[in-house]
Amino acid sequence: MNINLNINNKIYNLQVDVDEPLLKTLRTLGFKSVKSACETSNCGLCTVLIDDLPHLSCTILSVQCESKKIVTLEGLSEEVKIIGDFIAEEGADQCGFCSSGFIVNVISLKRLYPDIRDELFIKNYLSGNLCRCTGYEGQMRAVRKYLEV
Ligand code: FES
Ligand code: FES
Question: Which GO terms label this protein's molecular function in UniProt (predicted)?
Fold first, then answer.
């Protein structure tokens, strides 16, 4: 099927299978920040923004994304630098495999709820982003710092 996708403000004309997940399309195009992990909506590693809201790209079909605005980590470079520095400062990055999906979701949190400081709300918002290496404490310290800038 022939579709047009708007990814990071650039239009891509593509031939995709009707049942192709957006995750596969994005990785085939070279957006390797979008990680392929559980592919069952459980880990959050494939998170991207679609029309400014976080979505699991393993769980949505590419054909459903026509006329929507898709943004990957590659399209968020300024904000990624800020939160990425806090994550590094707090030693919250170990293997780093979870980081791109986590960062996309943290950026969406700040954009949607810039004044939020409620710890429980923040943890609930980010609860879909799993990390196998850390205890989440470093990430939370980084998120608190990021919400203050
Ligand atoms: S790869 Fe999509 S949620 Fe795990
Ligand atoms: S740092 Fe390894 S999975 Fe999160």
Answer: 2 iron, 2 sulfur cluster binding; metal ion binding; oxidoreductase activity
Identify the burial level of 137 via C-beta atoms within 10 angstroms of its C-beta, where 0-12 means exposed, 13-18 middle and 19 or more buried. Answer: exposed
**Backbone torsions φ then ψ of 91, nearest 5 degrees:** 65, 30
Reported as a single tens digit per residue, the pLDDT across 43-78 is 999 999 999 999 999 999 999 999 999 999 999 999
Is residue 105 domain-shared with residue 136, that is, in the same domain?
A: yes
Q: Could you tell me if 102 and 115 lie in one domain?
A: yes
Residue 46 alpha carbon to ligand 1 centre in Å: 5
Q: Could you tell which of 33, 39, 50 is best to mutate to test the pocket of ligand 1, judged by most ligand atoms within 8 Å of the CB?
A: 39
Residue to mutate, 25, 32, 45, 131, ligand 1, most ligand atoms under 8 Å from C-beta: 45
Instruction: Name the domain boundary from 42, 57, 72.
Output: 72
